[in-house]
Amino acid sequence: MTAEEVTNEEQNNIPMEGEDITQKKDGGVLKLVKQEGTGTELPMTGDKVFVHYVGTLLDGTPFDSSRERGEKFSFELGKGQVIKAWDLGVATMKVGEISQLICKPEYAYGTAGSPPKIPPNATLVFQVELFEFRGEDITEGEDGGIIRRIITKGEGYTKPNEGAAVEVCLEGSCEGKVFDKRELKFELGDGEGLGLPSGVEKALTAMEQGEESLFFIKPKYGYGNTGNSKYNIPGEATLQYKLKLTTFEKAKESWEMNSAEKLEQSIIVKEKGTQYFKEGKYRQASVQYKRIVSWLENESSLPEGEEQKAQALRLAAHLNLAMCFLKLQEPSSTFNNCDKALELDETNEKALFRRGEALFAMKEFDRARADFQRVIQLYPSNKAAKSQVALCQKQVKEQHEKDKRLYANMFQKFAERDAKEEADKGMENGGGMEVEESGGQE
Predict the structure, then answer these.
(1) Which active-site residues does the annotation give?
(2) Mean pLDDT throughout 304-320?
(3) Which of 123, 160, 229, 434 shows the greatest Cβ crowding within 10 Å of its Cβ?
(4) Are 133 and 49 within 8 A, CB to CB?
């Protein structure tokens, strides 16, 4: 019997066995365990799962096999990347488990099928083996710093943005001990003032309303190498947070605001950022200054006479961001914001000086010296710039001395190597002559 000849009636006459794992209990997905897995943990929504599978029609005709390709198949569970039957079935499996899934059309490829191998209204049989699953990495660079395991999926598709008002239930733990359990209402960007690590706010921006998830937060996004004395968290500790996003209200996006609103809000958040900076909350302050940049950087429809005010706010935002990143020891971000400030005011004293500081921290002493010398040229009374020039010159001199020693040693080694090669060559030539002479005597 060919695939095209498999009819619904013939399929229904073939005995099917297994546990009905559908929520509706409509027999749409039957699961039969062929080999038990290990452990007790099951994959969660959003986890990346790695499987091998063999797919056949009910008459045994194969249509797909990852084993034949010799490469495991991976997908994010519960995200609609595969047929419904797989999202349901794999969610019930343990690592090492092999199960058979019998999938009715409404949980597979439906009335359309998947030509040419899968006919319309086909019930499919999959043998699936689960090898591994891991949480979803929600960091921008996917550096493994914040891993999510979804306990309860949220509603809708929108997520909180910077400045959104959120209501959240949280439980933070470290090495199995709960250190923080609260219900909070706050604006994203204000979390540091509530004792929350940056990773929690990043986690919330990835969540949907009503979602409950576990987040594993590495030190970079937690309390870093210093830890947190209030909660008795040691340095370099990985944190675990259970978060439930009860509700949220998004902050207005740039495109939702007119020019007057953007200017008004920029003044408000500038003051907010300044307050955070005075309190030593540099990360929170930077969030506020970034909002000014996002609102005003590409604004082209300002009311008459307001362009100068907007430019002054943008300049202040970039200068303040540069200062925040200096405090946070992030020189490349400092450098970038100084460049932006100098595009707005090419002789700005603070921008030139802070860019010099960033370059010094990046060990680019020649370029740093040039910036400090430019400050002195424009603002002769700046004593700090004169001191920095002297420091740069000292570093440049030390670097030159170091390079001289390095190259001297290098040339010495080359000279020794060349001398040795010449000596070896001479010995080879001399040895050959001696053999010839002794040969002649014979």
Answers:
(1) 53, 63-64, 83, 109, 126
(2) 92
(3) 160
(4) yes
